[in-house]
Amino acid sequence: MQSKAQTSNLPFTVAALYRFARLPQYQELQQPLFDLCTSNGIKGTLLLAAEGINGTVAGSAQAIAELVRYIESIPELADPELKYSYASAMPFHRMKVRLKREIVTMGVEDVDPLKTVGTYLSPTEWNDLISDEETIVIDTRNDYEVAIGTFQRAENPNTKTFREFPKWVEENREKLEGKKIAMFCTGGIRCEKATAYVKGLGLDDVFHLKGGILKYLEEMPREKSLWEGECFVFDERVAVGHGLTESDVELCRACRRPIHAEDKLHQYYEEGVSCAACYDERTPEDRARYRERQKQVKLAAKKGVSHIGS
């Protein structure tokens, strides 16, 4: 496993960023951002909405620095929340700049992190809070993310998408009343909306981990860490560990859920076609298509070229 110093020498810099802002001109930024990224070899996804920007991109250190300078030059987007990590291979296939209704989709009207959010905590302050057994610790991520790593004592809402989170809060509101509530997510953005939503319900003693799990794993020494497992990331690295080192977790190419070595022993696992989690979600026709795609991936690999489905 690489050390933090070693990972910073890897050829690709990965930048996860977001900024909630009043951004009425967001549509006008789509083409300039796309052109800047593609001309500099940057790949990944950026989301633009009237409420701000969100995304993860990768490229050379110089290219990422140029992109960040451009984003920070836009007055509304100055001082974005930024987290850097590193990759041994380009973790994205293409560059996308998308226009959205929300930069993180919760589906609840009038949830505005610019008006109210939970109290931000540093990694050290976070350790102190979640060590208190009276604190309710909530993982706001989806079930497949939680499955490969989470904080000690964390509640798992078992959501498939972030849209399901408000329903879980409503159903569990009674046990949240009068408690300290500590929320966390991958990079911090989901918690901006999650804490704003919970505070809007009248639950005021709400905290969240500034910079999310990624900042925690970057800064917190392993021997003091309360994190167990690895952190799922939405790119070809699949997951990262302490020091933001790359994981050996892989993806099921049918459903893009994480899979470990033991998952490959299951009767429903077939490389590029299915895993135990998604076998019943797909039809035989689906799996036939995936087998053909996997065949093309292997043929491309033999020729020494990349296939988009790999």
TrEMBL record:
EC number(s) recorded for this UniProt protein: 1.14.-.-
InterPro entries per UniProt: Rhodanese-like_dom, Rhodanese-like_dom_sf, TrhO, TRHO_N
Superkingdom field: Bacteria
Keyword Oxidoreductase: yes
UniProt keyword Membrane, yes or no: no
GO molecular function, one term: oxidoreductase activity, acting on paired donors, with incorporation or reduction of molecular oxygen
Listed NCBIfam families: PRK00142.1-4
HAMAP family for the chain: TrhO (MF_00469)
Name by which UniProt lists this protein: tRNA uridine(34) hydroxylase
Organism, scientific name: Nitratireductor aestuarii
Gene name of the record: trhO
